[in-house]
Amino acid sequence: MDGASVSVRGLGKRYGAVRAVEGVDIEVRPGEFLSLLGPSGSGKTTLLMMIAGFEVPTEGSIRIGDRDVTYVAPNWRNIGMVFQRYALFPHMTVADNVAFPLRMRKVAKAEIARRVADALALVQLQDCGKRLPSELSGGQQQRVAVARALVFEPPVLLMDEPLGALDKKLREQMQIEIKRLQQRLGVTVIYVTHDQEEALTMSDRIAVMRNGSLEQIGSPTELYDSPATPFVADFVGKTNFLEAVCHSCNGTGLEFGLGQSGFIYLKECPPALATPPEPGEKMRLAVRPEAIRMVPPGDSDNRPLNGVVEAVIFVGSFRTYLVRLTGGELLHVQASTDHGMSPPREGDRVGLNIPSQAVQIFRKRRQ
Ligand SMILES: Nc1ncnc2c1ncn2[C@@H]1O[C@H](COP(=O)(O)OP(=O)(O)OP(=O)(O)O)[C@@H](O)[C@H]1O
Ligand SMILES: [Mg+2]
Fold this sequence. Notes:
Layout: E1 6-15, E2 18-28, E3 33-37, H1 44-52, E4 59-64, E5 67-68, E6 79-82, H2 94-104, H3 109-122, H4 138-150, E7 156-160, H5 168-185, E8 188-193, H6 196-202, E9 205-210, E10 213-218, H7 220-225, H8 230-235, E11 240-250, E12 253-257, E13 263-266, E14 282-287, E15 293-295, E16 305-315, E17 318-325, E18 330-333, E19 349-353, E20 359-363
Parallel strand pairs: 3-8, 3-9, 6-7, 7-8
Antiparallel strand pairs: 1-2, 1-4, 4-5, 9-10, 11-12, 11-14, 12-13, 14-20, 15-19, 16-17, 16-19, 17-18
Helix pairs in contact: 2-3, 2-4, 3-4
The structure holds adenosine-5'-triphosphate and magnesium ion (MG).
Magnesium ion (MG) binds next to helix 1.
């Protein structure tokens, strides 16, 4: 099975006054795993339903391969689909569920039996064909749904929060299984999730949705390291925001004032900013918790920010410190401490070093 490209241009959907999706352009490459990531109500399902053909767009077009399918009925698009729940027909056996798309396509009986067996083997459920869905675990049921979606060898597979009903451990296991299967088959996958970890784990690229529009599209590392907007910085991974005023911007770097909390120095202006900040301009800075280094307080050589540890949170293999800066801002710091410095405890004063390259700068008016 070869994956097909999916091209979405200027796609929009209105329900009365509600703009569920607006002006979305996405080019999905053949065999790519693309996730649609966004908060509840951001238009992910509506976008997926238009690609599947269950919703008619108000504007724009959809192509699969070199074929315009904007107004083609769902069963003529040759797309596999896995929904979040209620996916299987409860009164049919597992084998009959998987056979369903082939029966609809009037495939010969012997051929159906062979392909159902293959599809069940693909998701490692070869011995479960005679059972009813209610006799399977949640994870097994979703694997049957995946087998049913893949049995007719579609070039495109759409999945809408397929693991949403599963517990965390099973979800993580299924993420790996689905990803492996997709790579083995070469099928193009468009995968809806509001779980950023899931999107980061599975995707070649992630399209971040917000209020029906595409906020940014890029690889997991691009989104994580170079978020285009504060929304993306906040939604993909954890981040700290700091309100700052640009004090100076010249050949030797940029200085930002954080009021009573101190200063942050950057060696150079991030290339993502079209024009450098002007002195006096209010900006929003974003810093990842793991980019901050903890140092002894008041070390004037390093000019750190100073603060007090308000809480220490154990998260398995690392610790997160909540540090209150002198000016009142609360920062999440996921730090290894400086060599020779013992891990701080609640109430301790600490210094924070923020490396230049770890700071994202956003213009206030562009939020
Ligand atoms: N049939 C409908 N009629 C009216 N409004 C709708 C309809 N379907 C969706 N909407 C609205 O369109 C917007 C986008 O909905 P959509 O279901 O696409 O979001 P979503 O990103 O999938 O959210 P979730 O993560 O909660 O599933 C929402 O504001 C929703 O209320
Ligand atoms: Mg949805």
